[in-house]
Amino acid sequence: MRTTFSGYKKIDGAMIYRFDGKTYDKHLDYNRLKSQLSKVFHAMLDGRWHTLEDLVDIVESGTVASVSARLRDLRKFKFGAYLIRTKRNDEGLWKYKLALDENGSPCINHEMRDVFRDPNTHKYADWLKDELIVRIVKLEARVEKLKDR
Q: pLDDT tens digits for the chain (149 residues)?
């Protein structure tokens, strides 16, 4: 069973998570988001339906809004493009479930991943993703240097 998520890239032996957004501050938010993303991912590995409130209780950190944001992160290609299923109960409350295959490994949202699939070999172009990540990390480093000026 796969128990790690691909929301990072190893560069010089360090795992680099790729968070972003208008209000994201690497120095203030990086460690908190990295920890919370990992906790939400591991909580979802049970393959059961969870409300956002359930997940807040399980991960013991964050708010409903932040846990919801981590679920959205897990759906993004850069964090693995995981298939998160949703359903609404009779009271209008949404529940979320990480789809698992017959081996208990998380399922990938292939519609999103197919953008990076080589039509000849049917393999995912992870080299492209990796190259983009390296470029993003380098650009982020440049931006940080410019902020310090």
A: 444 444 544 444 444 567 878 888 888 988 899 899 989 999 999 999 999 999 999 999 899 999 999 999 888 877 878 899 999 999 999 999 999 988 888 888 766 655 555 556 555 555 555 656 666 667 777 777 777 76
Encoded tokens for 63: 């708010």
| Amino acid (1-letter code) at residue 120 | N
Nearest to 18 by CA among 147, 122, 137, 141: 137
Which residue segments constitute the domains of the chain, with CATH numbers given? 8-108 (1.10.10.10)
Gap between the Cα atoms of 97 and 14, Å rounded? 30
Element (H, E) at 51: none
What's the whole-model pTM score?
0.68
Radius of gyration of the CA atoms of the chain, in A: 17
